[in-house]
Amino acid sequence: xxxxxxxxxxxxxxxxxxxxxxxxxxxxxxxxxxxxxxxxxxxxxxxxxxxxxxxxxxxxxxxxxxxxxxxxxxxxxxxxxxxxxxxxxxxxxxxxxxxxxxxxxxxxxxxxxxxxxxxxxxxxxxxxxxxxxxxxxxxxxxxxxxxxxxxxxxxxxxxxxxxxxxxxxxxxxxxxxxxx
Length: 180
Hints:
Blueprint: H1 5-15, H2 23-34, H3 39-51, H4 55-58, H5 67-84, H6 89-100, H7 114-135, H8 138-147, H9 155-170
Helix pairs in contact: 1-3, 3-5, 6-7
């Protein structure tokens, strides 16, 4: 894991009472890193999540339960970066469609708003990933599900890890409007 020791120290301070991160917590942080979540954003999401838990329960709270808070912080960070770089959401939308043109039968309509563009790309990505999943041999699907079974308790995280695995295997770009 290449997130710094400082992140681990900050998380342990927030959890209170722990001397080290569990293997599952380490795997969770590794997964966040592989998804491209910057260290400071991961910490911000974990901080918000753990601060919402009663102090006496924090040390027993697995980090993967913080997935939604981390993803919310990540989405906010990506939007802020996009606005700071003065990009055009229309140009980004067209670029994303161009990247997956060979995987879709019919081009989606031109969106009228940024939110509509985000939704179209999200729906398109879901359909593409669903089709790729169906194409995999049953044995491969079982292997992927087993690989991430530790995180099955958190359906959002589990689903996101499986999607990330499919993206890697098939070279599919992330279709978020805010991610390059």
